[in-house]
Design brief:
With 485 residues, the chain is an alpha/beta fold. It is 33% helix and 24% strand. It has three domains: 146 residues, FAD/NAD(P)-binding domain (3-Layer(bba) Sandwich), CATH 3.50.50; 115 residues, FAD/NAD(P)-binding domain (3-Layer(bba) Sandwich); 113 residues, Enolase-like, domain 1 (2-Layer Sandwich). The chain is built from 15 helices and 22 strands. Strands 1, 2, 3, 4, 5, 6 and 17 form a seven-stranded mixed β-sheet that branches. The protein has a five-stranded parallel β-sheet with strand order 8-15-9-10-11. Helix 1 runs parallel beside helix 9 and helix 3 crosses helix 4.
Length: 485
C-alpha cells in the first residue's frame, strides 16, 4: 500500500455531490479547509434530480387535480381536470432547474470548493484519482448515496418498468400503473399518479402498507387510498411477469391463490441499496466491513472501521435514507475529519424526524408505539384526533391525529407521530422539544395562533395534562371552592 504522504494537496476530498457530499464540502470550505468535490453525474444527487424535488413537484400537480375533483366539498362545482401530462412533467423539470443553482458547481466554487466532474477512484487511503489526475488528501469522505433496488423477478426484462430514478423520463401517463412496494416512495407516487388519472394497483408483501409506522397510521392511509380508488394488495407476493402480445401481466400470489394484474407500466419501489462499489473501495481493501443491509460499516464518528481517515455519510452509510439525515451526518463527517484528534464528536441520531408526503401526510420523530412495545420501553400514549380541531374542520381536513408517547410520571416526549394535512410542519414543534429538552408542559403553555393546525399540538399536550392531573389535588380544590361559595 502507498505510504502516507508528508504533505497533502487537500484537507478533504469528497466523493459524491448529493446532500451529504455538498454539506460536507460546504462546511470544510467555510472553516478554511482546502476541499475537492467529485461527482460523476449531476450536482445535487438524487434529492434534486430524481428524488425529493421532482416527487414533491409532481405531488403538488396531483393535489391540484384532486382538489378540482372534490371542489363540491367547499361549495364549488367540481370539475374533471384536463390533465396534460407532458406539461405536468415539464413543470417538474422546470422546478428542478429553478433549484439547481443552490447545488451548482458555480455556487460551490465561489464558496471555495474545487469541483470535478468525473469518476473518482480511491487509489489509497490518501489518494483519489479523477480524470487521470491523482490527488493526495488527509481525509476522504464517501457520499455516494444509494440506488433503487430492482429484484430479479422472473420476466422483469420483458416488461416496461421504471424506478424512482428513471420515472422522470416518461412522457405519457400510464393508463394502468402497477406499483410494487408500499413504503413511503411507493405510497407517495401511487397516490400522485392515481390523482393524475392512472388506474393504480399496489402490491405489498407486508400485512399493511407503510408497515414501519404504527398500525393506526396504516389504517388512515389505506382508507384514504380506498376512497381514491387505489387498489392495495397487501400480504401479496409478486411471483413473475409475462409479456403476451401488447399485454403486460404480473402474477400475484395471495393466500395461496394466484391473481393476474394487467398494466402498462410498473414502478419498482421496494427499497434502495447503497452505492459502495465502482470507485475503488473494493480494490483498496477486500476486508472493508459492511452492514447487513449493504451500507458501509462506520464507527460513531462516521469513520470506516478499518481506516480512520476515510469517512462515510448519507445513504451509503445509513442507517437512514433522508436528505436531512445526510446533512446531519455531513456535519459530523466534516468536523470530525478536519479537527481530529483535537476535537471529535459522536454522531447523535436521537432526534431524526421523517415525513411521507401522502395525503394526509405522515410525520414521525423518536419512538413509535410499535418501537416502544418491541423495545419494552415504558410509556404513556396520548392521542388527539384532528376531527376535533377547528382549523381542520374549517378546511374539511379532519383525517388524522396527533399521537405523543410520554415517559410515565413525566412530560418528557419519547416520540410523536402526526397524520394530517400539515403533519410535516406540525412535527417541528415536537422535534424541537425533543432536541432542546422541553416537554408537553411548555408546549401547552406556549401561545399557538388561532386557528392553525399547530394548535393540535397544544391540544394533545392539554389532553396529557388532563389525563395526568392528580385526583387528590382536585378533591382538595373542589372542597376549597365550595367553602368560598
Amino acid at each position: 500500500m502507498t505510504k502516507q504522504p508528508k504533505k497533502f494537496d487537500y484537507n478533504q476530498i469528497v466523493i459524491g455531490a448529493g446532500s451529504a457530499g455538498l454539506i460536507t464540502s460546504y462546511i470544510c470550505a467555510v472553516v478554511g479547509a482546502k476541499v475537492a468535490l467529485i461527482e460523476k453525474n449531476k450536482m445535487g444527487g438524487d434529492c434534486l434530480n430524481t428524488g425529493c424535488v421532482p416527487s414533491k413537484a409532481l405531488i403538488k400537480s396531483a393535489k391540484v387535480a384532486h382538489q378540482m375533483k372534490v371542489a363540491h366539498k367547499y361549495g364549488i362545482e367540481s370539475a374533471a381536470p384536463n390533465i396534460d401530462f407532458k406539461k405536468v412533467m415539464n413543470r417538474v423539470h422546470e422546478v428542478i432547474k429553478q433549484i439547481e443553482p443552490h447545488d451548482s458547481t458555480e455556487r460551490y466554487e465561489k464558496l471555495g470548493v474545487e469541483c470535478f466532474t468525473g469518476e473518482a477512484t480511491i487509489r489509497s487511503p490518501w489518494e483519489v484519482e479523477v480524470n487521470g489526475k491523482v490527488m493526495t488528501t488527509k481525509n476522504i469522505t464517501i457520499a455516494t448515496g444509494a440506488r433503487p433496488v430492482v429484484p430479479p423477478i422472473d420476466g422483469i426484462n420483458e416488461i416496461p418498468f421504471v424506478t424512482s430514478e428513471t420515472l422522470w423520463g416518461i412522457e405519457d401517463l400510464p393508463k394502468n400503473l402497477l406499483v410494487v412496494g408500499g413504503g413511503p416512495i411507493g405510497c407517495e407516487l401511487a397516490q400522485a399518479f392515481s390523482r393524475l388519472g392512472s388506474k393504480v394497483v399496489m402490491v405489498e408483501q407486508s400485512p399493511h402498507i407503510m408497515d414501519r409506522e404504527d398500525r393506526s397510521v396504516s389504517e388512515v392511509i389505506e382508507k384514504a387510498f380506498k376512497e381514491e380508488s387505489i387498489t392495495v394488495l397487501i400480504d401479496s407476493k409478486l411471483k413473475s411477469f409475462k409479456k403476451s402480445g401488447d399485454e403486460n401481466i404480473a402474477f400475484i400470489e395471495k393466500d395461496g391463490l394466484e391473481e393476474e394484474v394487467h398494466f402498462d407500466l410498473c414502478l419498482m419501489a421496494i427499497g434502495r441499496k447503497a452505492n459502495t462499489k465502482g470507485f475503488g473501495l473494493e480494490d483498496l481493501d477486500k476486508e472493508i466491513e459492511y452492514n447487513g443491509n449493504g451500507t458501509l460499516k462506520v464507527d460513531k464518528y462516521l469513520r470506516l472501521t478499518k481506516y480512520k481517515n476515510i469517512y462515510a455519510a448519507g445513504d451509503v452509510a445509513g442507517p437512514f435514507q433522508f436528505t436531512h439525515a445526510a446533512s446531519h451526518q455531513a456535519w459530523y463527517a466534516s468536523v470530525n475529519s478536519l479537527f481530529s484528534p483535537f476535537y471529535k464528536k459522536k454522531t447523535n441520531y436521537d432526534v431524526i424526524p421523517r415525513v411521507t408526503f401522502t395525503s394526509p401526510e405522515v410525520a414521525s420523530v423518536g419512538l413509535s408505539e410499535k418501537d416502544a412495545v418491541e423495545k419494552n420501553i415504558e410509556h404513556m400514549k396520548v392521542v388527539y384526533q384532528l376531527d376535533d380541531l377547528d382549523r381542520a374542520i374549517a378546511e374539511s381536513e379532519i383525517k388524522g391525529f396527533v399521537q405523543v408517547l410520554v415517559k410515565p410520571n413525566s412530560d418528557k416526549i419519547l416520540g410523536a407521530t402526526i397524520v394530517g394535512a400539515s403533519a410535516g410542519d406540525m412535527l417541528l414543534e415536537f422535534t424541537s422539544a425533543m432536541k432542546n429538552g422541553f416537554g408537553l408542559d411548555k408546549i401547552m403553555g406556549t401561545i399557538h395562533p388561532y386557528p392553525t393546525f399547530g394548535e393540535a399540538n397544544k391540544s394533545a399536550a392539554s389532553t396529557w395534562k388532563n389525563a395526568t392531573k392528580p385526583e387528590w389535588a382536585i378533591k382538595i380544590l373542589t372542597k376549597f371552592h365550595s367553602l368560598r361559595r
